[in-house]
Specification:
Elements (H helix, E strand, L loop, with lengths): L2 E5 L3 E4 L2 H8 L2 H10 L4 H5 L5 E3 L3 H15 L4 E6 L7 E5 L2 E5 L12 E9 L5 E5 L2 E5 L5 E10 L6 E10 L14 H6 L1 H5 L16 H23 L16 H4 E6 L6 H12 L4 H11 E4 L10 E3 H7 L1 H21 L4 H7 L2 E2 L5 E3 H7 L4 E3 L2 H11 L1 H6 L4 E3 L6 H7 L2 H11 L20 H26 L8 E6 L8 H17 L8 E6 L7 H18 L8 E6 L4 H7 L5 E4 L11 H7 L3 E4 L5 H8 L5 E2 L4 H10 L3 H7 L1 H12 L11 H9 L5 H19 L2 H13 L6 H13 L17
Parallel strand pairs: 1-4, 1-12, 4-11, 12-13, 13-17, 17-18, 19-20, 19-22, 20-21, 22-23, 23-24
Antiparallel strand pairs: 2-3, 5-6, 7-10, 8-9, 10-11, 14-16, 15-16
Helix pairs in contact: 1-17, 4-31, 9-10, 9-12, 11-12, 18-19, 19-30, 20-21, 20-27, 20-29, 26-27
EC number: 2.4.1.1
Family: Belongs to the glycogen phosphorylase family.
Cofactor: pyridoxal 5'-phosphate
Length: 764
Amino acid sequence: PQRIYYLSLEFYMGRTLQNTMVNLGLQNACDEAIYQLGLDLEELEEIEEDAGLGNGGLGRLAACFLDSMATLGLAAYGYGIRYEFGIFNQKIVDGWQVEEADDWLRYGNPWEKARPEYMLPVHFYGRVDHTPEGVKWIDTQVPTSQCWTGGGRARVNNTVNTMRLWSAKAPNDFNLQEFNVGDYIEAVLDRNLAENISRVLYPNDNFFEGKELRLKQEYFVVAATLQDIIRRFKSSKFGCRDPVRTCFETFPDKVAIQLNDTHPALSIPELMRILVDVEKVDWDKAWEITKRTCAYTNHTVLPEALERWPVSMFEKLLPRHLEIIYALNQMHLDRVAALYPGDIDRLRRMSVIEEGDCKRINMAHLCVIGSHAVNGVARIHSDIVKNSVFKDFYELEPEKFQNKTNGITPRRWLLLCNPGLADVIAEKIGEGFITDLSQLKKLLDFINNETFIRDVAKVKQENKLKFAAYLEEQYKVKINPSSMFDVQVKRIHEYKRQLLNCLHAITLYNRIRSNPSKSLVPRTIMIGGKAAPGYHMAKMIIKLITSIGEVINNDPYVGDRLKVIFLENYRVSLAEKVIPAADLSQQISTAGTEASGTGNMKFMVNGALTIGTMDGANVEMAEEAGEENLFIFGMRVEDVDALDRQGYNAREYYERLPELRQAIDQINSGFFSPRDPGCFRDVVNMLMYHDRFKVFADYEAYIKCQGQVDQLFKDPREWTKKVIRNIACSGKFSSDRTIMEYAQEIWGVEPSATKIPPPNLPRD
């Protein structure tokens, strides 16, 4: 079959035990068996470490995609790096984030199998020699890549797809071949340098940090993976290791490579290098093959997230790849110049090489010219990609650009994390929705069914009680389980506007203080997420949230009407607990900044209502469920653009809105940081004078919209009816649908429903 290779520097897998039991249909049997041994399965599940090999959305998407590719019976492989240390563990000390190394392999990992027989060399540094026999890349340093495999099994069809993670290992003669070293001990110690490549995940989300070690990681995964892909392509018969195929004509018909963002972009020059230098394929033919094989997914429009590597770094680390990129860029620019004669500015804008004091390689441009398909991850994002980020490229080749709205796997994000809700649904419409989430539409028939309304509300209340108990046990926090659970969990970033949430919390607090006797909908505001260790403002935001909580949670006037909780160390396994318990999901990024978001979808399918801007997949969620069934507020993309042209002036809002002014003055004066009154000066200064994400511009609409949330929450029956309508309309957001679209419209394969016989049955 055609094989699909999903290349990603991140796979945010979480825990595997429960997921495997769910997919084998063994959960109840195991539960019972363990119970009979006098043990508790849930206690056992809590012992497993999360595989935290990702930062957030991009890495979790890759994990959902692996699940869906197996479910759809595709011959797909995930390829990435086996980081020794995943995303750091977050501790909150005195209100500040402190990072701790995530030594997730400390007790070993039962879900992986080492494959030492697939040890492969990866070359770095060296120089390029142009000989009559062709180009040679010589005098390189060679750490090898060690292969580890983990499988993900589909629930329905016994398909097991592999995820192959590479780990760096120094060859035995590393640094010993330098005859003059003489210091054997030093040479052996230097092996660490080679093995550092797979030591640690870079903890940045939506931010590019141009470090040499990171570029090494990017080439490392690409070089090892392409060797594996080509080995598999050459052995025509499954399980046979003797190379049979030598002609690469059919390569794009047998191999599809999907690049998860620009991080594996080096696949393009590396495949060219192998075809031209090693396999002696003609240059133009090789370029044709490469373009037909690769496809690129763009994940962000934030300029600070785009990868732009210094040419000088390439020159040193990957000299042959730099030559290839120059040659590809020349071909590309010749074509543009022929189509737009004299348009020098267009050539500058479209070049893969950015001129300037430091020449840089724009990896996104490389991906666009080297792929046959480029996609965004939600309709609004794909439109922005076409109309602004890659506008010139879209004009050149409009047929390349597509949209593939993200999705989430309903196995983990409904069945596994919310079995109570899954049961209530299955009781009404059967179990087909598990592999065809669009069947949730059938729930529309039960919106006015009193028993169903009661059952859905009951499951939510049970989930809330369970999560409240967990918080009390883990963090000694007591919360009111009948309050509205108002949740914003995601990476901490200015564009995600956790600060807007803070301003709402302060405003609610001030309203209670000024009118203590007024009856109010009680809320527990929970905010969770990690900040990149080098991101000062994000760390200040965490400190602000914890400081606001400190004041509000200890004010006797407030009682249990309002609590602000920071959820420490937010990760996949914590998401599985908090999402099923949420009443309100906050998706409040500035319109045009969140490419898609996937947490929004998890909350929707788990029976929370969404308060959000018209950004990312929120737009499509509102379209599916009806805008009146979400709490949509604030500027649209057009309004943001208009405000940019006009010039955003934060002070104008500060002067005009008394509640906003009061909140900002309190933050500024040290009301929330009495021991260090100047603590939040930077935050206030940013909000007042250089806020790229226009928090104040949406404040008024947000506060008003939150008032509507309160009104509805007072009427539990109407609230639950809206919840049911949201769940019923969430079917589009299954990653099965997303992968079906990738398969048909990018990879050119048809998903198969064929059930592979289980290993205990004879095959035909």
